[in-house]
Protein 1
Amino acid sequence: MHELSLMEAVREQALEQASRHGAGRIVAITLRIGSLAGVEPEALRFAFTVVMADTMAEGARLVIEAVPAVCFCSPCGQPFPAPGGNCECPRCGAISLELLQGRELELRSLEVEEGSGQPVVVSESSAEDFP
Ligand SMILES: [Zn+2]
């Protein structure tokens, strides 16, 4: 299952960040998921539970931030929404090859508990795509 290997990558990244911040426990994980990323939120939630079991992220909340697909039309110089990945400009009918967003699959932020039990939000400024 694609979602399972994806979640394993999320787990690696989340655990690494959490330990870098001296966290004792991960309380919540927020992911940005583009509408064209090709993953099912339901399958992601299932994979999350499976993959996070027996780690410091066991029982953490999974927050999914949906990112709608948006293309850019250069003749019009305008971005336009592209539900379903259909990048045909609604103004001039040109097929755009520039997808501005919609394929995101990234770790947005972590909420962790430090050894003291204080909740802290850890945000990654430079978001990178998962392999
Ligand atoms: Zn156009």
Note: The chain has a mean pLDDT of 90.
Protein 2
Amino acid sequence: MAKKRGSKQLILEYFLGNLGKVLISRDIQKASGGAVEWARRVRELRNEDGYQILSHKDRADLKPNQYLLETIDRVPAFAREISTETRAWVLERNGYTCQMCGAAAGDPDPLGGNRTVRLTMGHIIDKSKGGDDTPQNLRAVCTNCNQGLQNTALPKPVRIHLLSQIRRATIPDQIATLEWLLKKFGLETTEMLPKK
Ligand SMILES: [Zn+2]
């Protein structure tokens, strides 16, 4: 037991000493004192201690052997309840968009009526299959998808199709798309956009 705690602490110190730097598996293992189960310790730091250690599952620009800790801020990792902070963090990460059908919070409900789309927390790996309530296993899902009300096994749009749809959209819709993307990525344009 004492040995396990030791390697986890060593890994944590290595991440904290290299905030914002991409670290690779081999070096993490070395920093852990050569622990065979270093990857399990990294998972514990994420899922049990709430350190926001990112991997290729979180960020497309990371390779499978790369890990990154950017902040000492810890996500509250309550096992049972999804905290407000965790919800907010997941919603922001997912751009306030249903990760199954793509509807955004506040969009008109595609099933009709006067309702708007509401987002809730969905589990990537279902709890019945051992998934937990950690931020890494949560995603924004609209209430329709969460209740299985729509055919939600939609594949991600293929880029060439997506771009062709945007190219033939109206200018106001293209501008709306641009504005949404800029907002999503925290950017602003100083260019004058045509009036909608
Ligand atoms: Zn949805």
Note: The mean pLDDT is 84.
